[in-house]
Fold these 4 entries.
Entry 1:
Amino acid sequence: MFLTGILFFERFEIDILSGKKTITIRDETEKNFIPNTIVQVSTYETGRWFCEILIKDVQPITYDELSEFHAKQENMTLEELKAVIEEIYPGVRDLYVITYELLVG
Ligand SMILES: CC(=O)Nc1ccn([C@@H]2O[C@H](CO)[C@@H](O)[C@H]2O)c(=O)n1
């Protein structure tokens, strides 16, 4: 089955709603998003809904392939992005870049 909802840490909500953060990087448990489908977005902490996104693309990537290009789309430096991913997914090297467009905020 494909995924129709996604959770984000509250600390990223403002960046998502302002359009500064246009990708998320997830592990294989969250790779089953389908391009051109709408996904409901809620906070990880309390499950509070805060927007809808349109999935544009899902592409596999390894941790070592992450670049300034991805960091810019996360509104972070590459060092910050790698630290965040290492914190959320310690030791995971096979990841997925999910590109999305904000629909309702
Ligand atoms: C709530 C939960 O289960 N998982 C995640 C996993 C990732 N992310 C964010 O995606 C980007 C790359 O990983 C970074 O901006 C992360 O902080 C998130 O907000 N929540």
Entry 2:
Amino acid sequence: MTEAHVILHTQGLSKQFQGFRAVGSVDLRVVEGTVHALVGPNGAGKTTLFNLLTGFLKPSAGRIVFDGHNVTSAPPERIARLGIARSFQVTTLFPQMSAREHAELALQAGTGLSRQWWRSEKRMRRFTPRALELLDEVGLAALAEQPSGSLPYGRKRSLELALAIALDPKLLLLDEPTAGMGLEDVDRTVALIDRIRAGRTVVMVEHNMSVVGSLADTVTVLQRGDVLAEGPYDEVRSDPRVVEAYLGADVA
Ligand SMILES: Nc1ncnc2c1ncn2[C@@H]1O[C@H](COP(=O)(O)OP(=O)(O)OP(=O)(O)O)[C@@H](O)[C@H]1O
């Protein structure tokens, strides 16, 4: 049997904020081609860990290796260039711009011409065919010309996914992809992530355990900045330490 390829590896990764330990000493091994979920009660350190992985925060200690590159403390642009993309947040969409224009902009960002985009609408047109393909991939073909501000919430989140996969990242980081959604949108998003995971590795922070159960190959449970448990979903969810951490959080 060949050993699974670890595409993302952290060793002793930690982050302190003025002495407060938000991420303790995390060793994470994400296997290429899998969906790896990060779960844990509020304040467990999930968002901080994401910010460390994408270079938005610098670690206090430890190491991050992605696809053979040491990216510890690397700037976000370098990490993005190496193939890590994070799902955009709804708040970063420009309400007047259409879904297609957002997709064109995301594609254009990969060409290094970012500062000139506004100079020529004609220049953007070369990205139109791929932009429409991307929107089709996330079920937004019929809404391509709508201003993004007028899209229903669930569709805005689909647009974020389209933007995150625009540059065909090797590793996709999804921050609570179903947060705030109704059942129908949750189901559609699960099906969508299941489609776009093909040929990629996904790390997602997700609170909805049925979403985690449907998508994740591996689950890492964080608590107060440390890894509490890790393994396949069925194993992890019946782990007494995990049950206690969640019950404890509920009671609190
Ligand atoms: N910039 C900061 N300065 C000080 N403390 C911070 C900062 N960012 C996060 N923290 C603290 O670090 C801890 C971990 O926060 P983090 O947002 O990573 O948790 P989380 O697991 O993502 O929680 P949630 O599920 O609520 O989003 C929290 O106690 C938080 O208050």
Entry 3:
Amino acid sequence: MKYDLIIKGGKVVFRDEVRRNDIAIKNGIIAAIAETIDNEAEQTIDASEQYVMPGMIDTHVHICEPGRTEWEGFITGTKALAAGGTTCYVDMPLNALPATIDRETLYLKAEAAKGKNYIDYAFYGGLVPGNLERLKELSDEGVVAFKCFMSTCGTDNPNDFSNVDDYTLYTGMKKIAELGHILSIHAENALITDRLGEEMAGQGRITAADYVLSRPVFTEVEAVKRALYLGKQTRCRLHFVHISTAEAVEEIAKARREGQDVSLESCPHYFTITAAQFEEIGPAAKCSPPLRSREEQEKLWQQLIEGKIDMLTSDHSPCPPEMKQSSSNNFFEVWGGITGCQNNVDLMFDEAVLKRNIPITNFVKMISSNPAERFNIPNKGEIAVSMDADIILVDANRSYVVKEEGLFYRHKQSPYIGRTIDCRVTKTLVRGIVVYDLDQGIAGEPLGQVIRSKSQAEAMNV
Ligand SMILES: NC(=O)N[C@H]1NC(=O)NC1=O
Ligand SMILES: [Zn+2]
Ligand SMILES: [Zn+2]
């Protein structure tokens, strides 16, 4: 058989081992894997100096199109994702306008996304006060999970997302459990964090450090415990997004040991930037939950080493430059959200695999296999015959400095600018097509396809 492409001689990362193998691709699918494949092929890639692994599946990305394309659109956002080694992502139901909370708004999202994605994508649906009766239709349309905010969301247009009150959280969980779906939760106590913030800003305490103090560790832990408790009552499957504290990780691990169906993600920034560094970097590093102390960060690293962090996601939450500025240097006023998805894989491969000797197979589980499994994303998350050829090449001997001009974001305000990273994604393939190459940049046209959750029946009709 003549193949479309053979990736030759790379150190291929499989589920439980790394082996030097050739990978043959036909019609976007991995057709053969062997020590050597000598068949003819339209194209070959020499990967002998590289790791070859499944692309990242980033299940936490805020693309702000439609409605706020000037913050970040599908084209710029997915170029950055592709250049960073992500081959598939899940778009969050907020920051675009309108928020994705029913069939109509999902169709608007899907329509806006058509033909503009360089990588494959799926959608989240939102749980907000008042849309309980719309969750089934979102499920029927193939959203991969539902998302809610226990803290306030930071946007204030009438068509924006709203955070849940406890009643909505409880009834939403009941409904989502009936649908057999997962509820993903931004867990921070809204009342306490908002009031602490107001209090501090009222006293003129407006620095980066003050912002961090207004969202203490216990406000995350309390929200996690409350959600776990309600999850237990309702038997709803849960997923906690961007967990930033060791105590929250332990609570979730404990609930899992006791039989709850619950998972968690954390993000590269919680492992690579401390609260003290946030003060030096400035608004680009503002996010919620906030960056934590070195001590807290070290505990989180230990938990990652112990396998307690199921997955890594970017929480790419971009905004225009003026929203990261405040004439009075008031950190409560600037946008909370990090523009960071282009460096996910490089940063965490460097810090986790190269610097802390975490097995590369575990790393790949966190960036690819676990998210694919948890969110039912079919045919992705693993290098194996008959899977989609969503593959990245990583050079573990190539250092670079993150520079503004290399970033594909609409607004190049990453907190990682100036940072040296000691490895680099050199190629990204989506279903066998090279969409990014380090030397040539983004290649070809946007070929990304929408993915519907495996468990769903109705085709997404757009
Ligand atoms: N609205 C929004 O994107 N918020 C995100 N930003 C952030 O730092 N945490 C979030 O939940
Ligand atoms: Zn969030
Ligand atoms: Zn987010």
Entry 4:
Amino acid sequence: MKQKQQKNQSRIEDKHVLIVTSVEAEKEAVKRGLQNTGKFTVITGGVGPMAAAASTAEAIAAHPYDYVVVMGIAGGFKGRAPVRSIVVATELIASDMGAETEDTFLSLDDLGLGTSSIEADRAISEDLALCFNHRQVPVYRGAVLTSATVTGTKQKEEVLRRRYPNAAAEAMEGFGAATAAAQRGIPILEIRSISNEVGPRNREAWDIKGALSSLETAGAVLKEAFLK
Ligand SMILES: O=C(O)c1cccc(C(=O)CC[C@H]2O[C@@H](n3cnc4c(=O)[nH]cnc43)[C@H](O)[C@@H]2O)c1
């Protein structure tokens, strides 16, 4: 009876997971963390929401993945997610898709034209945050913004803070991959390691090496969460 129950259950350890990164260095960092675990396929999907959407759509059309996980480095909002910490997304938001008026911003939801926000798989993202805590890796849960343009001014940072009070990080791919996944009903997750503060551009100050090291740890934690 027990055997039969186990056979009928949809077991998380039997799932096949597609991981979407933007550049090769992120893919290699995640793969080091995963240590050749067969159930994960890691792709370099390109930079920006359009490249991420197209690459994800192509991958999930070719193979029946059970989860899509967007991973990479990101900017963190000061006071919400410091450099080298990890952000596990609660939702993936297209930060600039909508319409401006003289005094506000209208999202696609406000306009009745679709949605600018897709929720991350709640149970797994909560579990992941616990796994990071367990390893004493600083982790924050919050919305991850997808912006086609990296924020480079104080003024834009403040606009985003006001518009998205629950945002912890900004990157460029999540909502694109999530759109492709949602069209096939595949749950989405986003895990980001913070390389820089969102705000005035200072590319030399980005801690890419540190963030890639945190991303490698994130790969190991993802493996632990899916295999336990
Ligand atoms: O130059 C390198 O060695 C290198 C290694 C890994 C990654 C990079 C990138 O430039 C990745 C671009 C990627 O980073 C995300 N990102 C990072 N910070 C921000 C931000 O403040 N706002 C938006 N996006 C950010 C983004 O997802 C890009 O795809 C270079």
